[in-house]
Amino acid sequence: MRLYALRCLTSLLLNVVKSRESGTSDLSAMEQLDYPLSLTFKIGTLANDFVARDRMGNVVVYVRQKLLKLIDEVQVYRDESRSDLRYTLKANKWIDFSTTYTFTNAQGQEVGRVARQGWASLWKAHYEIFDEQQQPDLTIREANPWVKVADGLLGEVPILGLLTGYFFNPSYLVTRPDGTLVARLTKKPSGLGRRFSLEKEAEFERGEEERVLLSLMMMILLERRRG
Questions:
Q1: pTM of the predicted model as reported, rounded to 2 decimal places
Q2: Which one of 103, 104, 144, 187 is at 20 to 30 Å from 24 when CA atoms are compared?
Q3: Ordered domains of the chain (ranges, CATH)
Q4: How confident is the model over 190-194, as a mean pLDDT?
């Protein structure tokens, strides 16, 4: 019996080591995510932050971005207690139209990055996702840029501008190089644009889920700040 227990413990430890060496993510390895995920921004805090929950309402992560920093840095925690830091998302330079954001896990390993495609994103949001080897992996594009235009125009109208979150709600599509739709992020009708929903459209390949989630989390912080 003791020998059997020792073998089980050894096997478990080996799996943990292999998981870390292969770059398996905290989000993918430690959670069985139940889609769709809901992302809800908090109001009245001194940070740009939101909570992600699964279909059953369980907290997946708490994402927090400190304001008034020259270089963007975002922390991804297990929950709102902020006792378990899972990831750090950090810009490679001062706030800019073409900044790249690198993802590092709790062990300090780079697991991917996302880059905003400069001036092109002023019209239609466009981001490129890279894997841990800095190779192009996936793309995020805004489905219909005219929704953002209408939102901006109505937002300039007194009183009505407070209601834009209920009428104009853009969607963002995550695709592979072959055009396969992997995930869809949609802004839901809500005051102050507080709520988003993330749908999985295809089964994730190795490492994709982690990079997609982190990239979309970073993207909505940036796009929401732009309005």
A1: 0.78
A2: 187
A3: 24-226 (2.40.160.200)
A4: 65
